[in-house]
Design goal:
The protein is mainly beta and about 230 residues long. It has two helices and 15 strands. Strand 14 and strand 15 form a beta hairpin. The longest helix is centred in the first third of the chain and has 16 residues. The two termini are about 35 Å apart. The mean pLDDT is about 95.
Length: about 230
Amino acid sequence: MRSRHASSDSRPLFRRIEPRPWTGRYKRLPGYMTGFHVREGWPLIEWEKEEARADCWMVETAAARELASAVMGGKGHFGYGGGGSFLINEYGQVLVPSPAGTSEVVLVGEWTGPLEFENPFDGGVFDLMNDEGLQTGARWELPYVGIVHNLSKWDELYYWDKESSCKVFPPEQDERLIRSLRQMRPHGPVRFIVTPGAFALTKVPSWERAGWCRWIPRYVGRLKAPPLWFRKED
């Protein structure tokens, strides 16, 4: 299952960091398929596609091996000896939550380069960092994994900090990103995710039958550098 090697010309790299408390942005969508996981000592994503589910194991590289070890080290920081869930933010920072379900999170390293996983549906490989050729509104066909952010009904981009129960705003509002979100979701508040590849995705309602709505993932666009987006946190 984990014998396929990286197909990209760019080589993935992982820089391990001794687990340290993370006080920055970390909010995951509910559900198992909204995060990365380490299982049996190796990273994977569980992907649902057309009502079928599959385990997508990370392509075998030295970086993937180090990533898995670092995530397990992060869980060990909380006194747990196994694997579990984690997220990677737009800066490649690998964030590991406490397996006890508390709000505690540790930073365990930084990932750069392609983020490739095996695709059991077609026998190939997909890269979650790659948005080449996608335009605003294009359907997002890959796993929907990222950190939750929001657009208010007053067109303010923000992150909701649960600990302080308040909105955290980027230094400046990115009008281009707001317009792209409103192109797909014209009214009301909008929840979107920010991916490891530093772009935004959101879900758009599709009324396929009378009274029945299906939410379809769509590509929003790439994030601009600070000050139009949040600075890299330590």
